[in-house]
Amino acid sequence: MLSPRTRTASRPGRRRRTVLAASTLTVALTVTATACGADDDRHNAATGSGPSPVASQGDGKGEGQGKVSLPGDLADRLKEHGIDVDAWKNGGWKNWDKKDWLREAKDFVNPVIEGLWKPERMQSAKEADKTVTVKDASAGQGVSDPEPVPVRAEAERTPYHRNAAPVGKVFFDAPDGPKVCSGTVVKDVNHPGKSNLVWTAGHCVHAGGDGGWYRNIVFVPAYNDYGKSEAQLADASFREMAPYGNWWADWASTSNEWIAGGSDTGGDGAAYDYAVLHVQPEQGAKSLEETVGAALAVDFSAPAAAQAGQMGAWGYPAAPPYNGLRMFKCIDRPGRLSLSPSLPTMYRIGCTMTGGSSGGGWFRVVNGETKLVSNTSIGPLDNTWLAGPQLGPSAEALYQYMSRTHGGR
């Protein structure tokens, strides 16, 4: 692992440019938020409530009924893999035996289990961290740019549904328990205005070369909408934690490179560490984009780091000193990170966000429009920077596949 090091002081000129760019990018992202009226905002602020959820979810404090929803041919696909639906519902999904862990791209299954992700279970989820080793970090010497000056993460303004509506948390189960990442609602080019697509990291859905698909994957947009503290959330209702409800992934795709070569430290799959989810509401009928009121376009032609201008990374860091309850952001000018001469270079920015921010979107403003250009993948042990993949033809092909094959449902 990278050893901790003393942080260098920021250069005054650089800090000034960063703040100005942050203002521009933040405003651009803010305008994508749900269009609530002033009266609605005053009411929400006074009551501590967020926007209406997809459908009535109850208070989320009681035990879930374990009801499993099986869209389309999912039951048949489960049977093909030898998975009994009732057994899965009653805890069979906790079997992580290597021979039963589905890993191929075509093998993804994720039946909805209503009531599984209650507020207390969400809060118990640990960060899905990815760090790089000294060997990984030194492999690109001569290609990588100097390490960036750390940029202290800034808390996003609340309510999140007004200021960063497309951003949320991705929860899932791994062999060692509930985990959490971040994600972003993105547009569906083949189904405009009705997207059910979420962008995140490959390591938030699949364990890579030594494992398979994670389970019970769910996206929660505008999680903890008002940024309440742990003490304030002691008796939180479901609506306070998940104002738009839970959105289960009925399909997920990540890169073949991540499936083959991803590892706990990123590995050979790090430069391809991205994924797209197609989600459905645990309860409700409208699309995710219609419900949230926002979605971002994905830019697959973003320039090399030197020409990229400013970028911002958004997410929910969950490892100390953060606790995963609040949304943060970092704005910086990206440099290059090379893990191997045979791999594409990655973007790298200064940022103090920790694990849990993985999968969170990286945004840049193009002609006044905020677009997603990357996602958080790896970082060092001392949490001074983040790196994300450059999204090119392979990422666009995956996105188009998800849009054409699973979009519009």
From TrEMBL:
<feature type="region of interest" description="Disordered">
    <location>
        <begin position="39"/>
        <end position="72"/>
    </location>
</feature>
<keyword id="KW-0732">Signal</keyword>
<dbReference type="InterPro" id="IPR043504">
    <property type="entry name" value="Peptidase_S1_PA_chymotrypsin"/>
</dbReference>
<feature type="signal peptide">
    <location>
        <begin position="1"/>
        <end position="37"/>
    </location>
</feature>
<protein>
    <submittedName>
        <fullName>Trypsin-like serine peptidase</fullName>
        <ecNumber>3.4.21.-</ecNumber>
    </submittedName>
</protein>
<dbReference type="InterPro" id="IPR009003">
    <property type="entry name" value="Peptidase_S1_PA"/>
</dbReference>
<dbReference type="GO" id="GO:0016787">
    <property type="term" value="F:hydrolase activity"/>
</dbReference>
<dbReference type="InterPro" id="IPR050966">
    <property type="entry name" value="Glutamyl_endopeptidase"/>
</dbReference>
<keyword id="KW-0378">Hydrolase</keyword>
